[in-house]
Amino acid sequence: MTTTKPSYLENQSHRKGLASWIFSTDHKRIGVLYLISILIFFSVGVLIGVVMRLKMLWPGTHLYSAAAYNAFFTVHGVIQIFLFIIPGIPAAFGNFILPLQIGAKDVAFPRLNLLSWWVYVIGALLALTALFSGNGPPDTGWSFYVPYSLRTNTNVTLAVFAAFILGFSSILTGLNFITTIHRMRCPGMSWFRMPLFTWSLYATAWIQILATPILAVTLIMVMAERILNLGLFDPGRGGDPLLYQHLFWIYSHPAVYIMILPAMGVVSDVIPAFCRKNIYGYKAIAFSSLAIAFVGYLVWAHHMFTSGMSNTARMVFSLLTFLVAIPSGVKVFNWIATMYKASIKIEPPMLFAMTFLFLFAIGGLTGLLNGALATDVNVHETYYVVGHFHYTMFGGTGMGFFAALLYWFPKMTGKMYNKRTIVVAWAHIFVGFNLLYFTMMIMGWLGMPRRYYSYPPQYHTYHVVATVGSWILATGVFMFLGAFLVALKKGTKVAANPWDATTLEWKTASPPPTENFQTIPTVTGGPYEFKDGHPA
Amino acid sequence: MSTPTHEYHPDSTGSKIGMWLFLFTELLLFGGMFLLYAVYRLKNPADFHYASLNLDTKTGAINTAILLTSSLTMVLSIGMLERRHRKASLWFLIITIGFGVWFLVNKYLEWSHKIHHGIYPGSEELTGRTAGENLFYSLYFLMTGLHGIHVVAGMVVLGVMVWMIGKPHHRVLPVTALPVDAQAHAVSVTVEYSEDAKLDQQKLIRLENAGLYWHLVDVIWIFLFPLFYLIS
Fold it and tell me: Domain B12-230 sits in which CATH superfamily?
């Protein structure tokens, strides 16, 4: 019984070629499917972003119309949020890594898992159809605010339906992960021996389940309003548009934690691996994920400070918003405490994890100004907000996603990328990113409103700097992604544990066999235990 | 704390957890609409009261009785399968689906009656009435409509269960690898038995989960009925 089992990349089903992938119920193959689809949409989103910035080089009308600009920022938002960043880490890396990290053979519901990928693809195709059919792409912004989203003639109904379908995919993944973590842990894998990435997926999955249905019903109502003329959000007929905003943000604020928590989980796994020591404050980090998931559910109205609410409501939501900073701070300080006096190996995953720390700290701290009522009123709907959330979402989740890709790519493919190319790409990303988004924050602070097609001349220099930054950033991103394509062809072969890391996924071959492990492992200690700089 | 299990055994607890989580999302889905109902009722108490009087409480009550009874037959179907009375289980399932059809027919008659009198979202008749009444009927059509879709979905699920329980087992057994002699026969019989038991258990888990879904549809109606028909 000691013969080596074939890797998951070798086809063992009766299907051939592409069909052996798109109908596979193997969580690893599904993870790879997700990864490929997500990266494709991410690239499209980046390109649309570049096209948007290109227009902003000069004020006035040129390059394309204002209506096209509206469509671009809507589509950029819809793609990056619903197709990249929400499914991003959980669906791609969670699917691949979660069962490996808890010593399971697969997720609890493998067929449901495949279904959720199909639902994702169908949702994505519907979203793309919405761009190229009907009366033009939606132009409402990704938040589909009423009453405009009810009145515009563009293809909002189909886009909303696509988002609704994508929500289903998210819910199915969430309930699959929760059940998997509860039921499929290998012998000895107690709750507090689970890697922190798994913990973060657990917290994320709960938000996916608790928040996404609210988005679903809100989107159903927008569709029903448009098709059946219900008038539920139409002030002319007694409806209240503010209720739409409440319902929308009851989902969409927790959704930012669906986006960031898994990235925090990645960083929590990467940092001990490259600091060669146990994580500082394991339980604090694990519980802070749950705390963020819980408190994050109660802060939605801070998106609506200028929409018209009572002062009491605004103060309560402002206070609750500040509370989120506590568990987030707990995480950041624990990561830094882990790095303190460690012999840090700055390999590419660690480089991006540290970039995460730096950019996310800026994103987090600038967020406090949005949480405070007095300052938020001034910066609301300006480029400041755009800069801030790109620091958290791209600088946070995006860098976490990149770190995850760098960390687990050798596990997924058995190959190593060119580390030097990655470092060069990183330099581009880092410089371009800060040029682009920090300039946005300055512009916003000076009063430049977001989503405007043109601007007064005093903002010209800032817009030029930001646009140049977007070129550098996009170059870095595509250089980064290109490195993986090259690695697939020319990458050097790696052993089971190229990073000398401790968690369970490194105890099996790279790439892992279809059954994940030669024999089901038994766990006897914590996830990050080192002895003399090597896994204990 | 539950013990982790091997994936090839049907994990009854695991699939129950999954199902309950799904039901939870369904409750939240309706929760969003209950929220709207609460706010609009609070803003327009008199209009909601007046509009509610125009709904036919008798039809609503009959439909409530129908769904409650269908939950009973659902449970009986599960009970029968547990006791391995496959036929009886099937019949109770079919009766449950029948109740679903009856419910929908009543709903259809009720809706067409309303629409016949010009009461539907955006109709001329309603445009002349108060904002509160408009909101009431919009919510009425939206919420009972979405509930109706859930009833249909539940019936489809139950239909699949009828097919699943109705068809005999036809699992190909791995007996070819065994040498054919008297002993091998004994081995193959044991395998067949355990395969059968496993399939039975799988069907039972699925039927229980289908039942849970059906009860959810029932429970949501139990909230819709008083909100629209009774409170006034």
Answer: Cytochrome c oxidase, subunit III, four-helix bundle (1.20.120.80)
